[in-house]
């Protein structure tokens, strides 16, 4: 989605014309993504596993003291494992994501 190094909601919202981070965050969090994964699989898209940056919070589901790639160290954070469609065009398309639940 658009050029840029980080694929979290805040940097993506900053690159959009209206820049509404709350609306984009709500769209990403409440949208069903399975149909996109099926469509990409039919087109033969390649997938690459990745981890999103950490999201802070003590009372949220999945928060644990674990490695946070965005910070480059261990911290109390949430981590999501993502699957992206990768093509020759710049960027990638988010197909699926699941929270990583520490034990």
TrEMBL record:
Residues 1-37, 57-103 form the Transposase IS701-like DDE domain. Residues 23-32 have a biased composition (Polar residues). Transmembrane segments: none annotated. InterPro entries: IS701-like, IS701-like_DDE_dom. Pfam families: DDE_5. Residues 1-45 are annotated as: Disordered. Signal peptide: none annotated. PANTHER family: TRANSPOSASE. This is Putative IS701 family ISAzvi8-like transposase. It comes from Streptomyces rapamycinicus (strain ATCC 29253 / DSM 41530 / NRRL 5491 / AYB-994).
């Amino acid at each position: 989605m658009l050029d840029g190094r980080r694929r979290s909601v805040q940097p993506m919202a900053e690159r959009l014309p209206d820049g509404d981070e709350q609306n984009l965050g709500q769209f990403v969090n409440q949208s069903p993504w399975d149909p996109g994964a099926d469509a990409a699989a039919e087109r033969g898209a390649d997938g690459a596993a990745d981890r999103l940056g950490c999201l802070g919070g003590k009372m949220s589901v999945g928060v644990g003291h674990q490695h946070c790639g965005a910070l480059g160290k261990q911290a109390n954070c949430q981590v999501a494992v993502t699957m992206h469609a990768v093509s020759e065009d710049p960027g990638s398309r988010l197909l699926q994501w699941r929270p990583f639940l520490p034990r």
